Amino acid sequence: MSESKRIKSALVSVYHKDGLDSILQKLHQEGVSFISTGGTQKFIESLGIPCKAVEDLTGYPSILGGRVKTLHPKVFGGILGRRSEESDLLQMAQYEIPEIDLVIVDLYPFQETVASGASEADIIEKIDIGGISLIRAAAKNMKDVVIIASKDQYKPFADLIEENGANTTLEDRKWFAKEAFAVSSLYDSAIFNYFDEEEGGAFRKAVNDSKHLRYGENPHQRATFYGKFDEMFEQLQGKEISYNNLLDIDAAITLISEFEDTTFAILKHNNACGIASDPNLVEAWRKALAGDPVSAFGGILVTNAVIDKETAEEANKIFFEVIIAPDYDVEALEILSQKKNRIILIQKEIKLQKKQFRSLLNGVLTQERDAKIETPEELKPVTSRKPTDSEIEDLLFANKLVKNSKSNAIVLAKNKQLCASGVGQTSRVDALKQAIEKAKSFGFDLNGAVMASDAFFPFPDCVEIAHNEGINTVIQPGGSINDSKSIAYCEENNMAMVTTGFRHFKH
After folding, report:
1. Is 90 exceeded by the pLDDT of residue 445?
2. What is the full DSSP assignment across 112-144?
3. Catalytic residue at 72?
């Protein structure tokens, strides 16, 4: 695998030229000759480097508005010709096809054009034909040719030629070929998804950026994160983020994004074990911690407000792994930074993906993200007693929590504070009993609290149990054939129930 080849000629045709000048100058010093097109040719010549026009090689000008420039046997023959095949060499000599040992090319910015809201005509013109063909041809003939398919490969290639001059090994060329096919697959996936228009005709997802993690959910499992974490967060300090950290961070920002009021949440294993909304951030923290000070140990902290000194001092009293906020006061950051392994993140503008997917059986399962947030106007009272304004606030607060909890889930809340939740239970009754027991163990008075359920009540047992604990206001999706039984119990006991029409299962 160490067969060395020397680059003698290069075809260069790029959209992004930043960082390319030093590469071209180094190759020129090594005696490499250049072929290029249009603006790239002018750029090369501006560096004082001789460059042959593709048109002079092919005998054809750029035609059809620039759609056809490099699509010619003298170009592709020079790239695809196998130097070890005598018949290829004879044909190349017969048709005067020069060998091309290096291709530096990138692609029209298709994704960026789509994102800009451009017209369909402009988007279609940004579907690269020549570039993608050059990438595939050079990558296929990696035994003889080096392919640089993106500006992201400029640096590794610059480092390579700085160390080895114009010589490359097969291992080098195979690595660049692998990177090139990553570029082409991402590009083709973006084009397909544009034309598919979310019809789901096929599943195509490609992400270039990868980060190998220490391990997966458990130490014996290997794991990799694909994505641009740094676009969403700035990590100010702390240890390397783990697989489980990422799951909790995702759950944390999904939850906190539902709240406009100043809110603080503590999560453990993707579920909120404490959360509260309060205009005073330190009070929101204290109320969140009161929800379950035991489970908070080693948890993930998240807020939608800038963390001040007082809040940092209070939070610093417990052990936690990660804290996420839009920013930190200088004094707050000094306090939180005292524990060097603690992961401190600044949350940037978050744009969550509209679709979720997971591997399952021998395929992939996809769905739209549950972005539904109920409003007061959408609540449908189904009992004679209607909830008060403050109860409606608590119902909506609790409903956001139950939506972001593992099913089966029940949430008990009061004054925009989580009293307790029962999550991940096979029975809704068990989830409620778990929540009640937990709330009592931490000293909560459930009289006047509200109850939220992620799905309908198949029987009236849950509302009966809740009523016996002083909980007389309930929010649930509704839709059970036995809804009338739960409603009847509420009527008999002067309870208020509202339905939303939206179930929020989460597995």
Report:
1. yes
2. HHHHTT--HHHHHHTS-SHHHHHHHHHHHTTTT
3. no
